[in-house]
Predict the structure.
Amino acid sequence: MRHLLLATAGVMALSAATPALADMAAAERWIDDSFQRSALSPDEQKAEMEWFIKAAEPFQGMEINVLSETIPTHTYESEVLTKAFEEITGIKVNHQLLGEGEVVQAVQTQMQTNRNLYDAYVNDSDLVGTHARLQAAVNLSEWMEGEGKDVTNPGLDLEDFIGKEFTTGPDGALWQLPDQQFANLYWFRKDWFDDEDNKAAFKEKYGYDLGVPVNWSAYEDIAEFFSNDVKEIDGVRIYGHMDYGKRAPDLGWRMTDAWLSMAGEGDKGLPNGRPVDEWGIRMEEGSCNPVGASVTRGGGTNSPAAVYAIAKWDEWLRTYAPPSAASYDFYQSLPALNQGNVAQQIFWYTAFTADMVKPKSEGNNTVDDEGMPLWRMAPSPHGPYWEEGMKVGYQDVGSWTFLKSTPVDRRKAAWLYAQFVGSKTVDTEKSHVGLTFVRDSTVNHESFTERAPALGGLVEFYRSPDRTRWTPTGVNVPDYPKLAQLWWQYIGDVNAGNYTPQVAMDRLAGEMDQIMARMQQADEKANVYGGCGPRLNEERDAQYWLDQPGAPKPKLENEKPQGETIAYEEIIKQWQ
């Protein structure tokens, strides 16, 4: 609901008499005090802010509402950048923070009801296949050239954005604007790995060097070694693995965030496997119509590689993680690493880097007395079904998303805010807070060259061409909100001991196919998915598909090949 920020006519008259002067004074103050580190020079920053001031004039006094998940980057936007934006442009922003599941639910509700709950969302690019099909979101390529042209920053520089290929639909249009991104990488205690006694004992037992695991066999050996051989360091019981298993929506993301692909379930191809992606959904090259998730339809959700992936998650969680880990959710498990009792984590989101570099005085036991990390991040190892040319892991790209149900004037004001918080004036400082890079000019800024040694490999990773092998959910998924909510429920049954991994994945794949069948009916009847809804294959014997090249792949005779590791220093050389 729109309302005026200024309370009296006298104040309004004063503001109207000198808006540009007051706003530029605010902009210069913010640049001098809070946005000193920038890819732009101070004069260029001022010029960019002058554009924002001018573009925002029709919307001064408006109050808008936006929604994102709760991570440090968005906390900074909500608490700091909203204030800067209001003082500079006169537009008040209520930037609400909720859990990721609640954000997805809000997006889904607004798309279904056409009620304007929020004027913009930072919504994962995992929904790009949904937005491109459902026709409820704003096509940003068209928006920036058409209705939103007058409020599109000429200095936006889309080519500078990391990850816009992940927010591009099968139609080639940009549907979302990246705001923050983070990868799931491998995390390990380098000080423990470098210990000469540990190195010698590991080499004697396993016959190869203790180092960054290249494959899941080595990860398992290292987990076994620290949990059951080392057992204790400095009087503290330690564990060789950390994960989470609480029956909650977080558990679904734990798996859809490329866990099956890391095991090797899908096909080759970047940013996502084609025809079979990391969810196990099959969509033929050159088509926009998914044809199934079950092996009997050519999918991979219940294939041997997928079942292997779920079985290893469950086995490692029970065998090598702290006893409490099985009841942790996403938000509890990752910060728990700073207790300092875990040797490695195969699936660690770099969004938590900010927590892992806090000083010892704040309870972080994974840094030394000078605050330097005792840990490092590296590429996650891959499972035995993985092949060169497949994606290596997951990249979360939280992206600004605008829905057609939002009135145009409110959408324009929100689009200005979205561009502001990702502008070159602001982005470098924002990235120092949240460490979730979306601009090349930011990650290559000299301030991050200076800070890199304290960030455990994050800067080196994002400066490397290797980063493109970590990608979000892609366009094979026709309706993310409908399908994602199934995963945690069926996989939760494995952790609860109700079903074996095979039965759980059979049930999940079957339910996904049933829901996609209903999508197909809706699309054929009413063009709900713009003609790009599912068109399911007829079921046939699973062996037919397992005999075809690529995914779904038949069961391997040996799912634990020889362990393989690499020295961390070699990885850094490759990244550089």
About this structure: DSSP finds 24 helices and eleven strands in the chain. The two ends are 50 Å apart (CA to CA).
